[in-house]
Amino acid sequence: MLTIALAITPHTVPSSLAMALDVLRLGNRHAAPRPLAKLLRLSADGRGVDSPLGRWSVDGALDAAERADLLLFPAIGVPEPAVLQDLAPWIEWLRTRRPRRGAATLPRFASICSAAFVLGDAGLLDGRRATTHWSLEQPFRRRYPNARLAIDQMITHDGDIACSGGAYAGVDLCLHLLRLAGGETLARRVANELVFDEQRGPQRRHAPRLPAPDHEDAAIGRLQRWLDSRYAEPLTLAAMAEQLHCSPRSLLRRFKQATGLTPIDYLQRVRVSAAEAQLADPQRTVEAVAWAVGYEDRAAFAKVFKRITGASPASVRRRPDQ
């Protein structure tokens, strides 16, 4: 029988821990009559851990992870430096236990969502494919430049290191672990009981298409609202600048400073957001949607759509929930 240890810290996100335990326990139930894995909850010192939902009991201390086949880190919330400093005992322990470089059937270490930063701080992600929550892409790239971040992926598995994307991508990861340890049929039974669709496309499609309207440039805010209502028109940078009574160069500078995007980038994102909503209508063809949001050429529309969402318009149309 396998042993899977789950690391519990004061920063562990309760829903992430509960989600992982639920999926793995269902795996044990469907693997009956013999459970697939022994599940251990470990803290750094072997004592219970206080959480927003009360005190979590544990089965042992960090050193018990040495005897586990897999050590899984649930999400840790926002991976600020102070949070990672609190997790120093785990990170230092990981630094002395380098993973194998060859192919591995079951990963030795795995992370859900923001817990990828724990593996990253331990140096385990250098040269490896990894993923994390889409909103953490830039801080992850800055902190771990040697990792091969695949932010679009729900899960990555490189050698004996596995990571999952944001939040409920942890279910994808746990199903992947069940598939490796118990086979496709077992993983499918658990997914069916959870009413969980594994064919959900890339993680990037869940990221907001447009920046939050929290800047202080009122004129740029008015232009954004103007673009939001006229995105289907053949707009040019000069036409946008005319709305602000400024030069295109001045508009570029102010718009980028306020929103982090160029005016054309913003316009493309408005169009793609509108297209995603329209693609939900099975009566509308991809060509009709492209035309309705301002593109005369389907190929150009598809290229922009995939760059922003990580998926093609046709694949979005084929999603079971559409």
Automatic annotation (TrEMBL):
InterPro entries cross-referenced by the UniProt entry: Class_I_gatase-like, DJ-1/PfpI, Homeodomain-like_sf, HTH_AraC, HTH_AraC-typ_CS, INH-QAR
Record PROSITE patterns: HTH_ARAC_FAMILY_1, HTH_ARAC_FAMILY_2
Stored Pfam families: DJ-1_PfpI (PF01965), HTH_18 (PF12833)
Domain HTH araC/xylS-type: 221-319
Keyword Transcription regulation: yes
UniProt keyword list: DNA-binding, Transcription, Transcription regulation
Transcription found in the keyword field: yes
Gene3D superfamilies for the chain: 3.40.50.880, Homeodomain-like
PANTHER family reported for this sequence: ARAC-FAMILY TRANSCRIPTIONAL REGULATOR (PTHR43130), HTH-TYPE TRANSCRIPTIONAL REGULATOR RV1931C (PTHR43130:SF3)
Name of the protein this chain belongs to: Helix-turn-helix domain-containing protein
